[in-house]
Amino acid sequence: MEIKRLRGKIKVITGLHIGGGDDTMKIGGIDNQVVKDVNTDLPYIPGSSLKGKMRSLLEWKYGLVGISGGEPFSPKFLEDAVFNDENMVKKALIVMKLFGTTLTEKDKKVLEKKGLSERDLGITRVSVSDCHLTKEMIEAKKKGRKLTEAKYENVIDRCTGTAKHPRQTERVTAGTEFEYDIRVKILPGDDEKELLNALKEALELVELDYLGGNGSRGYGRVEFIEEGE
């Protein structure tokens, strides 16, 4: 087994909101805060948020979402007639190899019918670390750079054309940079290039879509700047 790495920087292009819990209500405070490190109070991107977005978009790109009905793809869905196409089976296996799947007895029987081995599936191969601020960003903050901002959101009354129900959403500011570190296990018999290319494709899809919440409002546009494996 080998472990390969994809690492680099995530540059925030438009305000980024990945919510963090706040068990206190502050009068006049921000309603929707971003997630922050409990010790440093600095914003970060949870690895689970990035990994979940990568998997979701890759399943959309590979045509798996309509078949699974919105569930994470698993072997039981291989019974669908669309998987008479070997190319579709190949795409489904890439997703399940990379991101893992829970193998039920039904899943195992479906794999057996398809002549596929359960050896390659199961536990996720991909590990996505939490993405913390770059050293340059931390230094910039010490010099006064703002890493977050409060943006007002509201609803427009269709009859009067006026805004109502204002609320504040906290966002990571445009230009902020985080470090990402993605690791993937390559087992004997794997097509290493195929798996790494799928991960890179998933990152490209996140760039084209968005990360975090409120993407339809223009939030969460990001750029991945790769620094090598």
Explain how this protein is built.
There is one protein chain. 29% of the residues lie in helices and 22% in strands. The strands form 2 sheets. It has a 4-stranded antiparallel beta sheet with strand order 2-5-1-6. A two-stranded antiparallel sheet has the order 3-4. Helix 1 crosses helix 6. The protein is built from 6 helices and 6 strands. The protein is α+β, with helices and mostly antiparallel strands and 229 residues long. It folds into 2 domains: 146 residues, Alpha-Beta Plaits, CATH 3.30.70; 81 residues, no CATH class. About 3% of the residues have low confidence. The protein starts with a strand and ends with a strand.
Supply database-style keywords.
2 domains; 229 residues
Strands, helices and their partners?
Layout: E1 2-12, H1 47-61, H2 65-68, H3 86-99, H4 105-113, E2 126-128, H5 135-142, E3 148-156, E4 163-172, E5 177-186, H6 192-208, E6 222-228
Antiparallel strand pairs: 1-5, 1-6, 2-5, 3-4
